[in-house]
Structures are given as C-alpha cells and as structure tokens.
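Q: What structure does this chain adopt?
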Amino acid sequence: MMTETAKLNSIEFGWTNCLIGGGRTLPRGFEHYPSETQVKVARETFKNFYKSAHAPYIASLTVSEEKKMRTTKAHFTKMFKLGVVLNLRHITFHCGSFTEKKSLSSVQIIQRVISRVKELLKRKEELSASEIELAPEVGGKINSFADFDTLIHVASETGTLLTWDFAHDFARGGTVITYDQIKNRLIKIEDNLDVSNHRPLPIHLSGIIVGKHGEQEHTLLDKGAKLPWKLFLSVLKNENFIHKTVIICESKAKAAWPGEDSLTDSQKIFDFLFSDELITKWDAPATSLSKFIFK
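A:
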C-alpha cells in the first residue's frame, strides 16, 4: 500500500527459501528461483503494482567464510537479473547476525556490512539494475543484524533504503511504543535517507510473537504481543509521512483461525488508513514486554 491515497497495490515476492543450483531435487523446505518465463507472467499479472522481493534467508553479509559470501553474491546477481525483468522497485534482505562477534567487534561487523553493501550496489550497476533499490531489513531477533539505528547508519553510508519491519523493531525492544518515540524514528529517516513518494520507504507490518530473544514468529495484527499498529499508522498519517511509504502486510495465520489471514489484515490496515481514527496512546497489555510469549 502506498501513495497519497492509500490503495492495495503492492506485492512482495517471497524468494526467502530459494537456492542457487542444486539440480532438480532440493532439500525439503527449499525451492528454485522462478524462471524468466514465470517472472514475465508475474510482471504482467501485477502490471500496475509496486513490486518488491524478499531475498533468501541464507544470504548474509556478516559471514566470515568466503564461500558463503560468494553464495550471497550469487543470490543477489540472480535477483538483480530477475528483478530487471520483473520491474522490481526494491529488494528486502536480512544482513545476517552478530554471531561473528566472537572474532570481530560490533563496529567491525558494521563496517563489513557497509563495505559489502557497496559491492552489491556496484554489481547492481554492472547488471543495469539501477532502478532496483536495496533495503536491508530491521531484524527481529536481538542478535540479528541489525536494529533500527544501526541500519539507519548503514543506509546513510551507502545511499540505500532500509526496510522498517515495525514488528521486528518492537520485538527486539525498540523504543516504538509512544507517539513521540515513533515520530523520532521518522525524523531520523528524514534526516538520513532520501525518501519520497517516488522513492518510498519499505515498511513491513504484521502481528508478532515475542520471546526472550526477540521475534519468535509472525502472526495476525491483533494477536501475539499486541503490537501498537494503530498508533504506528496514526503517527504516519498525522505526520504526513504515509505518502512516503510502501506498506507490505506480512501477517501469518494458523488454520485454527478461519476467516483470518494476511489479506484480512491488509484490509484492516487499508481501512484504518482511510478512516478518520487517530490513536495517540498505546494501551499496553498488563504483561511486560519481556514476557510477551503469546501463542
């Protein structure tokens, strides 16, 4: 959803479990990238949609092993090539984790990621994929790379966008539970990134189940840790920022919840954006955030 008058016109292609190569038979849970023919069909099917893709989770910019980094680069090369055919606007990706801290400091890992993002940007230009933005995603687990402020730094140093997954930000303890805290996030974005209705900020929105290490899994908006999603959207509306965003609903439903799914949550977001309702305060659950482990 995006532009001054919100509308259901954005789609994210999930390439999260795609592998490079692997022959005809892949390990359970993995899949091949779509063919160029399939991508052309998708391009025409969603001709007037804002189209983005989510990179495979296996891709990582924090790894030390050269073989793993070559694999990551191969994934991005594949995505850039398909993205040109598909007319992608951005690629969302997880940068990796801070587990490399055993051998590197946090500052060194951040510099590694910045350097590797610049390499990907160079590769993108070589493949004539300049129209595709890179948008590293705010991680949901405490040890994932990285939190909102770190990715603001990475994006400002490299000229990329970032994907603000609000549920992830919330799950890892981000200060996003009051109007002013969320507004301060918008100010940081305005001060450090070049965003507009022509270059919108990717936002992921969903419910979230939270444990002691941060995100456990996505759920519906009104389940799990009771995400302050209406407060979040209210700030975007009231601060005239909504037209600078593209919102992707990533809610997930269980079979036990008939009639509820990501599309019904997308409609909830859509209806709220078009309503006159504004929320200025989050009615937090009685349970502390550290105990949000709702099933």
